């Protein structure tokens, strides 16, 4: 689909194609997440219990990554892009542009989900948009903490959950583990299902600054008002942004030298260069041994 879009729009610039990829991939991710959660909220839990939500979110990640992996690497998450920046796999400028594209995609994904279930949302809340309470629907689009959760505990929740997620992304994308390219989105999506089953209680495991901020910004202009940011006296909205960034940088303290990225051209070039050097040395030694053997044979047969 993206290749067809590129051909029609005649996008020849590699970065431009990558940004469109991140935009579309993140839009698909957020669209699927919002639709899955909407079914749970609007039916008051009669559809899509928690495990079904986890599976739906995981599938959103699978296909969000798959659709843009060839163009941009399939980050669809500013925290993941920051991790790759820390590995020097992308530049700071590309990280900023990726983040903007991902946030814009998340905004559009939320808007499409809102249109799809517009009548159902109106039926549920009577046309009045609520952030909290029995008729609240803001949680369809962005994360809000459970009543028991404070900001500090929520921050640690997001650091640990995102760090675990990024650790497994490193594992899956490490060339030495030999995951085929077509398998990687499936495994990464499955990892996030695991994260959801483990971390869903506190705040719904956003683990993605764009996935949370883009839809939150959409709800601000869609009638939910400033409460989407001022909830709990402004002490929450920054948590799903800052926490994942910190978790991505920590990624459970994985050393840089222990990871060989599947897209790491510079590192791969170094490995290939060392391999070529060793092969050349071996071939040179073999030639020298053959020459010595030939010279010995000639000397032995000389009159």
From TrEMBL:
Membrane protein topology class: Multi-pass membrane protein
GO cellular component: basolateral plasma membrane
Entry's transmembrane regions: 20-38, 50-71, 92-118, 152-170, 182-201
Major site of localization recorded for this protein: membrane
The keyword GTP-binding is assigned to this record: no
Keyword Transport among UniProt keywords: yes
Alphabetical UniProt keywords: Membrane, Transmembrane, Transmembrane helix, Transport
Localization: Membrane
Pfam families reported for this sequence: MIP
UniProt cross-references to InterPro entries, sorted A to Z: Aquaporin-like (IPR023271), MIP (IPR000425), MIP/Aquaporin (IPR050363)
SUPFAM superfamilies registered for this protein in UniProt: Aquaporin-like (SSF81338)
GO molecular-function term, one example from the UniProt record: glycerol channel activity
Family indicated by similarity: Belongs to the MIP/aquaporin (TC 1.A.8) family.
Job description of the protein: Aquaglyceroporin that may modulate the water content and osmolytes during anhydrobiosis.
Protein's UniProt name: Aquaporin
UniProt source species: Steinernema carpocapsae (Entomopathogenic nematode)
């Amino acid at each position: 689909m993206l290749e067809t879009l590129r051909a029609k729009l005649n996008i020849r610039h590699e970065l431009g194609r990558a940004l469109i990829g991140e935009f579309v991939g993140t839009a698909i991710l957020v669209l699927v997440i919002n639709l899955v959660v909407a079914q749970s909220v609007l039916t008051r839990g009669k559809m899509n219990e928690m495990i079904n939500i986890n599976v739906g979110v995981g599938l959103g990640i699978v296909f969000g990554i798959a659709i843009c992996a060839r163009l941009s690497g399939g980050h669809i998450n500013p925290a993941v892009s920051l991790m790759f920046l820390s590995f020097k796999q992308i530049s700071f400028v590309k990280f900023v542009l990726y983040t903007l594209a991902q946030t814009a995609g998340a905004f559009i994904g939320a808007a499409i989900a809102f249109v799809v279930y517009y009548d159902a949302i109106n039926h549920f809340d009577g046309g009045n948009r609520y952030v909290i309470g029995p008729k609240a629907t803001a949680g369809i689009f962005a994360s809000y903490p459970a009543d028991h959760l404070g900001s500090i505990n929520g921050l640690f929740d997001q650091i640990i959950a995102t760090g675990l997620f990024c650790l497994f992304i490193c594992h899956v994308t490490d060339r030495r583990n030999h995951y085929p390219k077509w398998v990687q989105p499936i495994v990464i999506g499955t990892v996030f299902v695991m994260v959801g089953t483990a971390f869903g209680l506190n705040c719904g495991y956003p683990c993605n600054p764009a996935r949370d901020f883009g839809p939150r910004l959409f709800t601000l202009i869609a009638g939910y008002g400033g409460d989407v940011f001022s909830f709990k006296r402004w002490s929450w909205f920054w948590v799903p942004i800052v926490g994942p960034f910190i978790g991505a940088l920590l990624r459970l303290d994985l050393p840089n030298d222990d990871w060989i990225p599947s897209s790491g051209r510079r590192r791969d070039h170094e490995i290939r260069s060392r391999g070529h050097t060793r092969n050349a040395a071996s071939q040179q030694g073999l030639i020298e041994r053959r020459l010595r053997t030939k010279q010995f044979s000639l000397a032995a047969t000389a009159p």
